[in-house]
UniProtKB/TrEMBL annotation:
First-listed, main subcellular location of the protein, grouped into a coarse class: membrane
UniProt family annotation: Belongs to the SecG family.
Keyword Transmembrane on entry: yes
Compartments it resides in: Cell membrane
Biological process terms in GO annotation: intracellular protein transmembrane transport; protein secretion; protein transport by the Sec complex
Taxonomic lineage: Bacteria, Bacillati, Actinomycetota, Actinomycetes, Mycobacteriales
Gene name for this UniProt entry: secG
Record's bilayer topology term: Multi-pass membrane protein
Keyword Cell cycle: no
Superkingdom per UniProt: Bacteria
The name this protein goes by in its record: Protein-export membrane protein SecG
Database matches in InterPro entries: SecG (IPR004692)
Biological role: Involved in protein export. Participates in an early event of protein translocation.
Residues that span the membrane, as ranges: 51-72
Length: 78
């Protein structure tokens, strides 16, 4: 179980870094390469940005669950 949590943690950490870098800052970001830069003045965010937000939150939740799981495993394995 510990090996599985470590592998998922490494994968989710790398994916989380990539997803955070894809988000648009004030001047635009890498998300504009994938269609995030095309937006009308009426809408606050595009579908690409909303999906990117959802995926980022999901990966972050997986990351937190892995951290908590490893912490509990370390605490109760003696």
């Amino acid at each position: 179980m510990e090996l599985f949590l470590k592998i998922v943690l490494v994968i989710s950490s790398l994916l989380l870094m990539l997803l955070v870098l894809l988000h648009r800052a004030k001047g635009g970001g890498l998300s504009s390469l994938f269609g995030g830069g095309v937006q009308s003045s009426l809408s606050g965010s595009t579908v690409v940005e909303k999906n990117l937000d959802r995926i980022t939150v999901f990966v972050c939740v997986v990351w937190v669950i892995c951290i908590l799981g490893m912490g509990l495993e370390i605490k109760f394995t003696n």
